[in-house]
Amino acid sequence: MSRFMHLHGSAEISHNGHLKIGGVSTIDLAKQYGTPLYVYDTALIKERARGFRKTFKELGVKAEVAYASKAFSCMAIFQLMNEEGLSLDVVSGGELYTALKADFPPERIHFNGNNKSRSELVLAVKEKIGCIVVDNFYELQLLSEITGEMKSKTKVLLRVTPGIEAHTHDYILTGQEDSKFGFDLQNGQAEKAMKLSLESEYIELLGLHCHIGSQIFETTGFILAARKMIEKAAEWNSLYGFVPEVINLGGGFGIRYTQEDDPIAPSQYVKEMILAVKEEVSRTGMSMPEIWIEPGRSLVGDAGTSLYTIGSSKEVPGVRKYLAIDGGMSDNIRPALYRAKYEALIANKADAEPEDTVSIAGKCCESGDMLIWDLPLPDAEAGDLLAVFCTGAYGYSMANNYNRLPRPPVVFVENGKSKLVIRRETYRDLIKLDESLT
């Protein structure tokens, strides 16, 4: 194994040079379930979930940690998060429906999103979910009508744009106003939404919500956002008597994909956010609100590994060597969309030193279907098993059937055992919605 390779969670190299995750050989997993295959290290997910909750508890702050389910949604992951005492952030009727079918407690479900339909809002109100994060005036009016028709009191947060945009290490104090999400905190939109919410008979305004970005490696943006939200809340308290019970600072905590990434511990994000809120509350004379956060990637991202079987190869002399796998942009579209980078190794030769530099090509009929460029690997041949790390977030949730490729299965592994939680799609699944002309 290359000295630059980083193993996550319970991943280890066995005595015979094979990659193991959760005490299970990836070679055995590939034989049992086939490839491509998503493998989740559930012990690592649990460790992360408990770490977030522990930090809030140790600092004596009332909080909710809501898993941002857009990172990876299925009944099994929702059940796991429920077992760990987390809340759930959903962004569609489909995610909400899945959560309800998984028996996730409705009172711990938060519903986000910028264009919720009437039917989605009706379902949320009917099921008495814990909170709806209202994004715009259209939705606020629609929700006011629905709650009035159903005579059902519904708790809401107002999503605001605090004027902070975070791109990893760069924090810009203006410009975030140009966003499809939320009420602007500076131009009076958020204040107008707050007053309309307070006037609505069946809407109970809990507080404010923001989300400043993704894959963030510093706490500066979160601290600035917390200060701006508390400052504005204090102003509204003085003018209108509004006291926020909740400040939701969203998610976006970064993880390590490659050696270029340098994330901080989740507990550090939480500690510095709490400190900022406490300082601003003390300065303004406000009462301490609950702090909610929405980690997604940081709970499941590096707990996921994708397994592929290597097939064909092509060498362009003096230019590049390509290795093709049996998956690609249909099961991991992030490299094509975002130029996302990953680390990988040959799972059945995990202790071998790199001998070559290759580029990993997907099997989709697109020249842009490249998973990893210029990857150091030992000598590889058809039939070898490639393990790509940190694919647990936005892999399966963004998977597709381009080229009519069936989506891969998902397994959870822990303590030497594996559990199939999503089966592999079949060709029959691909045509189940099709209607024949004859």
Notes on the structure:
This protein has 438 residues and is α/β, with parallel strands linked by helices. It folds into two domains: 160 residues, Beta Barrel (Lyase, Ornithine Decarboxylase, Chain A, domain 1), CATH 2.40.37; 184 residues, TIM Barrel (Alpha-Beta Barrel). 30% of the residues lie in helices and 25% in strands. The chain has twelve helices and 23 strands. Helix 5 crosses helix 6 and helix 8 packs parallel to helix 9. The radius of gyration is 23 Å and the shape is globular. About 2% of the residues have low confidence.
- Which shape, going by the Cα principal axes? globular
Taken together, the total number of domains comes to 2
Query: Biggest sheet, in brief?
Result: 9 strands, mixed
Annotation field: number of helices:
12
For the record, the CATH class of the largest domain is Alpha Beta
Structural class: alpha/beta
CATH superfamily heading of the largest domain: Alanine racemase
CATH architecture identity of the largest domain: Alpha-Beta Barrel
Global mean pLDDT: 93
* N-to-C CA distance: 56 Å
Q: Please mark out the parts with pLDDT under 50 across 5 or more consecutive residues, or reply none.
A: 168-175
Helix content: 25-40%
What CATH calls the topology of the largest domain is TIM Barrel
What is the radius of gyration computed over CA atoms, rounded to a whole number of angstroms?
23 Å
User: Could you tell me the strand content as a percent range?
Assistant: 25-35%
